[in-house]
């Protein structure tokens, strides 16, 4: 009986000693894919380029930045987590907000909600501008090439 116990212990030790290097080798050969980190869309800290030519006061600049930040958050709230990631990547890679949104395969309800957010944002920004700045902005817009009938009408 005692011989069987000793025999079993020796067999167990032999097996563990023999298989340990194999397990270690197998673990070292497993390749773990490297995933690039998702870049978070940058929080706007300056006014959008089209407003930079309007001679804004510091107060107007800070108000517009706040409106843009709020709009970005409202947009994020409308999107699914997968769409949020795609949107953030597109913005981080330098795409304009409209281009990034067009690439997201949005539902009709999401499109309606986004149009409402963007219209509200536009109205808020216009309320910050003086009449002269609104005229200047309109003139600047007329010099830009027309991008289409609307945000999602392509």
TrEMBL record:
**Taxonomic superkingdom:** Bacteria
Q: Check the UniProt entry and state the signal peptide residues, or none.
A: 1-26
Q: Which organism is it from?
A: Mastigocoleus testarum BC008
Would you tell me the protein name for this molecule?
A: P pilus assembly/Cpx signaling pathway, periplasmic inhibitor/zinc-resistance associated protein
Q: Which GO terms describe its cellular component?
A: periplasmic space
Q: Which UniProt keywords apply?
A: Signal
Q: Kindly give the InterPro entries that the UniProt entry links to this protein.
A: LTXXQ (IPR012899)
């Amino acid at each position: 009986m005692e011989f069987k116990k000793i025999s079993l212990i020796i067999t167990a030790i032999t097996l563990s000693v023999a298989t340990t290097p194999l397990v270690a080798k197998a673990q070292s050969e497993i390749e773990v894919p490297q995933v690039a980190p998702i870049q978070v869309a940058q929080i706007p800290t300056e006014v959008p380029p089209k407003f930079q030519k309007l001679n804004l006061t510091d107060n107007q600049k800070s108000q517009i930045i706040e409106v843009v930040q709020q709009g970005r958050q409202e947009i994020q709230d409308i999107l699914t987590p997968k769409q949020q990631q795609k949107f953030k990547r597109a913005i981080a890679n330098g795409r304009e907000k409209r281009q990034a949104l067009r690439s997201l395969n949005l539902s009709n309800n999401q499109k309606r909600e986004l149009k409402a957010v963007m219209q509200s944002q536009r109205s808020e920004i216009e309320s910050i501008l003086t009449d002269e700045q609104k005229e200047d902005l309109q003139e600047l817009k007329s010099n830009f090439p027309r991008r289409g009938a609307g945000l999602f009408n392509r």
